[in-house]
Amino acid sequence: MRRKIAVERSLQNVRQLFESQGYKVDMFDDTQLHEIKSSTQYDAIIISGGNRDFLGIHETETNTPVIDASGLSAQSILDRVTRLEF
Asked: What InterPro entries does its record include (predicted)?
């Protein structure tokens, strides 16, 4: 995998952990989400989950895994993305 992820701007702790593990991290906000979802350049998209239904994530067809960070630690999110790589 490319080891490149997109992380919602509010998840700074997630960004820091992934960067410390060698990932390239692009940050995005709500207005950029539809563009990010349609991109094929990411291994995973990490969202805060606060606007999940409002933004239509549940209906989105994308080949890129979308991980809802609600209730998860940064380490748990990293573990999930790492499992996707194998």
From this structure: UPF0180 (IPR005370)
How far is it, in rounded angstroms, from Cα 83 to Cα 77?
10
Q: How many CB atoms lie within 10 A of CB 28?
A: 18
Question: Helix (H, G, I), strand (E, B), or coil: what is residue 81?
Answer: helix
* 77: nearest Cα among 26, 2, 4, 14: 14
**Cα–Cα nearest to 75, from 23, 32, 13, 4:** 13
> Which residues of the chain carry a pLDDT beneath 50?
54-55, 57, 59
Query: What is the extent of the structural domain holding 31?
Result: 4-84
Name the DSSP class of 31. Answer: G
Total domain count, the chain: 1
pTM: 0.81
